[in-house]
Amino acid sequence: MITVVTGNKNKAAEVTAFFAGVIGVSHVHFSGIEPQADTVDEIAISKAEQAYAALDVPLIVDDTGLFIDALSGFPGPYSSYVQDTIGNTGVLRLMGNAASRQAHFTTSIAYADVDGIRIFSGSVDGEITTVERGTGGFGYDPIFSVGGKTLAEMPMEEKNSLSHRVRALAVFRDWYLTTKSA
Amino acid sequence: MITVVTGNKNKAAEVTAFFAGVIGVSHVHFSGIEPQADTVDEIAISKAEQAYAALDVPLIVDDTGLFIDALSGFPGPYSSYVQDTIGNTGVLRLMGNAASRQAHFTTSIAYADVDGIRIFSGSVDGEITTVERGTGGFGYDPIFSVGGKTLAEMPMEEKNSLSHRVRALAVFRDWYLTTKSA
Q: In whole angstroms, what is the distance from residue B157 CA to residue B135 CA?
């Protein structure tokens, strides 16, 4: 049994569904300090340390960021704040007509138990578009394209097949099943 | 006697000089978690709580941000990260030819002792320029203008007379001398 630490019910439901029949999952909303750091690894590790100190049960927490090469990794760990302030319009303006439009989403999952903390990552490479496209999804989906289509232009299943979070969960699951539930 | 908690020696020296002959100051470099929050007040309070829990002496910590009205307050508490990634060029690009160019720097100082935590603020209002101007200062100084001159175009004394940090320190000093050292 592992505990998913998040304030986001949708995220908890997604994790529970992913592990259904394989790993038992419970959900706790624990408010630690969300640290400022340059990588989502560091943020996930810090949140896991805080949650484990308080809860003392095996648990996972995650953190996600969009990293744009031409902007030195911006908005990175501050993707939520940037989306809430300058938004997609601001990011497109920053990009201007930059030739390099490479970017990636990364999710880091930190797992904490009595043996310490381990980190698992999943990424998806794509490109920043020049205009917003598509009406699905949320956040950066309309400006992040993979194989010519933005995440906001994809049917839900196609988008899910590209999920950085699902990729990180899969890496964690494989390790956990091999190592912890023998 | 109060302890200044900072990893920045220049900042510690500035505070010590400001209080010389009035309040005794020592300096500690304590690394807590720098929290993500929407205001510099919240960040300063969190850092003060962490430092006080560890050090158990009367102390001050501060946090500073540049808040741009036309960008919903961006870069705000993440001013350092934004300066290190998209920089002044990025901020000017985001502003484009926005008519409203109002912005302010705010420093929040949190003081912690056995009675709890109090917060003191200092701000300076200005405008974001359309191009970088001046060779003095650092960070956002070349794009933040007050009374027609950027901070990077001012002699050091003139810039210091506009310091949000000094303003916050003065508010704290007046309160401290009235309340704590009767």
A: 15
